[in-house]
Amino acid sequence: MALLPPFIRAPRTTVSRQARTAAPHPVAGLPADDEVLLDVPDDRLGPALVAAGRGTYEAAADLLAGTRERAEWEYRDRYATRLASFADARPEWFQEWRAAAPRDPDVLLVAAQLAVDRAWRSPARAELLREVSPLITAAAQSDVRDPVPWRIALDHARGTRAGHKYFGELWEAAVRRAPHHYGCHVAAKRYLAESWHGSHRECFDFADRAAHDAPAGRLVQALPVRAAFAYLTDGCGPEVPRERLDAAADRAIDLSARFPASDPWPAQIRNLLTYVLVRLDRREDALTQLRLIGPYATSFPWGQLSDDPLGHFLAVREAVCSGLPWQALGQPRNGHGEPTRPGDH
Description:
The chain is an all-alpha fold. The chain has helices spanning 18-21, 45-53, 58-69, 73-89, 92-100, 105-120, 125-131, 133-142, 148-159, 164-177, 182-193, 200-213, 223-232, 242-256, 267-279, 283-293, 299-302, 309-322; strands spanning 12-13, 37-38, 296-297, 332-333. The strands form two sheets. Strands 1-4 form a two-stranded antiparallel ribbon. Strands 2-3 form a two-stranded parallel sheet. It starts with 11 loop residues before the first strand and ends in a 12-residue tail after the last strand.
């Protein structure tokens, strides 16, 4: 496994909140600004979050148990991440679930994700992350088929600055369980990217190989466009040929076309792709993705660029529809390091 350079986070941009109150745009096929929502859960996750908000855990338990029984690892990864985030803000339902079933694989998975999320936000990140290692081990041992604890372990390894040999062992264990799991590949790319800062071509090599080896329709087909995003929002390293950036965007366009319009499941990939297309000045392609996005804005990538991700999305949408250059969104201000969360899937 080649070692890749790190990507710094994109500088944040100040975006006017006027975008939130602007009149609906006349371009056909786009919802009004006040109809656009951020990080909307899909029809399976939504009821579990509503039930958790009411203090009950059974719906979340059934949801994650179903993903495990059906080996729906991509869904399991996303749902566990969202449930852990909800448990961080509203812990009562999860505490009750954990007390009722302390050895349940789904409880252990959410507990491991929650512990990593909390440790990641601390200035003492590396030290706190080392303390949560037993939780990740317990989640991994609770169901040996599940790749999601290994994705958490890969994030954990990045946060603790683990050596390449140890990381390679984790990576091999992850891909042995799910060779094309998107979350594990994103975690691996992020870890490898921090090894050699600025070597974007090597990162593209990793992403392109993973996408080439994966079946059409798998989320890992979006890995090259994540590499393009990292390059376009970074200020260092050798130039990546325009042809390679376009190829990454085209691959993600093909993936996006496999999903229904206005579907929250591929919304993050479509939001990411829209940013890349705007930066490549492929306005018509970006407008097509905005129509496919419909009302589903996502924190990633806009939260990497602004403290107001929804406002930034709406401003980009307005720029695309109005023919304004992306630079008109404002000058970036300084930003350093990674987002407070260990990863986005």
